[in-house]
Amino acid sequence: MSNVIIQIKNYSWQYMNSSDLALRNINLEIEEGKFIGIIGPNGSGKTTLAYSLDALIPGQYNGIKQGEVFVYGKEVEKYAKGELQKSVGVVFSDPESQFTAMTVEDELVFGMENLGLSIPEIKERLEWVTDLVDLEPLMLKPPYEISGGQKQRVALAAVLAMMPKVMVLDEPTSMLDPISRKRVFEVLAQLKKEKRNTIIVIEHSLENLIPLADRMILLSNGELILEDETQQFFQNIPLLLEKSVYPPGVLLFFYRLFEAGYANSVLPLTLEAAENNLIKIINEKINGVNR
Amino acid sequence: MNKTMLGYIPNESPIYVIHPFVKLFFLLVVSLFPMFIAAPEWNLLLMISIFLLMWWSRVDMKILRIYVPVAISMGSIIFISYVIFSGNHPEYHLLFKFLAFKIYWERIRDAIVVYFRILPMIITMVFFLSTTRERDVIVAMRSIKAPFVVTYVFAMALRSAGMVLEDFQIVRQAEQARGFDTKGKSIPYKIRKYVMYMIPLFALSLRRSEEFTNALVARGYAFTGPASKVKRADYILTHYTFKKLDILLTIIIGALFVAILIIRYGFGYFGLNTSILTIWASKFIG
User: Who among A115, A123, A140 is closest to B220 (CB)?
Assistant: First the structure.
């Protein structure tokens, strides 16, 4: 039985002083415990959608809203100040814009104090999150004086520590090197597996996102172009390319093989699946030649 | 090394033994000492004592060099306003005339007194900023149960000051990269072109404040409504304990202040009449 926790109905948003709609007639349902990937070119409305789920839009921005955004069955605008944020946590794309405190430790603790947690609870979660995201050596440093990658880890940890049921991550690895990026996705995989959080990730790094995502969403020019299960979503390569989304090399490679008649229409999403497919194709060819 | 508001001090500095509240109390109370001490030699002694504390705290004494121009320009302004433009005072002892200006001994004495009152206050502040992190100030305020909103707004103000300086550097470097640089140009030119820095800096500040509000909202902070009434656990305070040494130091600082008041107003010391330096100088001048 599906358990829809986020429901977006005919939702449009236009920022004040903008002639275009940032989001146009979005209809979307997200089930509890799912890992959702949102992709799309710059300016397609991804961040606007993320902010709409946390009521930062329309709360903090002037503009025109149409339609409704429900989280746990309640319209986001109906939540009292600070109430929705107990359930929905957003990691901003620019981590520095998320910082509110003078040290990394204060930064991590701030959200937990807002939730009214007791000191033992804060201590326990702090130890968990610093260990998970490897922040121990940075605890007494000012968050705005550490490296870009460290800032993103702090921003992520600060939201993780609040343990929201829904986590929205807006390009959480844009400043990270490949190893740190992998580490962040490992953390997300762990959360998905152990905590069963609903995780919504806006990300350009598809190699890391695809293996985790249950469903994918494509936004372009404020419109929801495509929404499907990850495997099905990436069978639409021509559409993705048309919308300036470049799938991982392995997918494009198999798409070309498919076009040339060497592969079947089910494109492999991961390196392991691609390897198996390729071995299968080679074996078929060898067997074909031998016969 | 640990970063403070005005530089760095080593991890081994003994100042870390002292609770942030004591440091704030020291700043607030010791800054008042010169207001009740007119005799310059006592204020000089106070300055030397604070220098010794800075040395004990392992503050890099080189940072004091940046305050030399401040001390000189402040002294010059006081001297000019008190001594050169002192006006006509027939009751004072006229030393000599310089062009149309009359130079009186009493006005020189007053200039020295004022100067030696302000200097210890500045040095006390330098000592505080050199040995204190932003977090210490917040801890000090929270340990005396200052409302969270007050301490938080104060923390935000401290952070904003740092951010504006960082943004200024970004704007400056961005404009330098595109060929706009006031380096080596005349001061009027710099002032005229300063607007080139100020407009983007102002725009950046507006964006920063918007981001800051978003960050607060996204982390569940509210100034009003039920979320603002949540009982906050002050986790940071758990790292600090107010020890016997801190109690003792607080009592000593408070007792010194009371002693100064009693000696000044009860026994008449620390005034100009009992100042060895001014008495000796008056005799010397005749």
Answer: A115
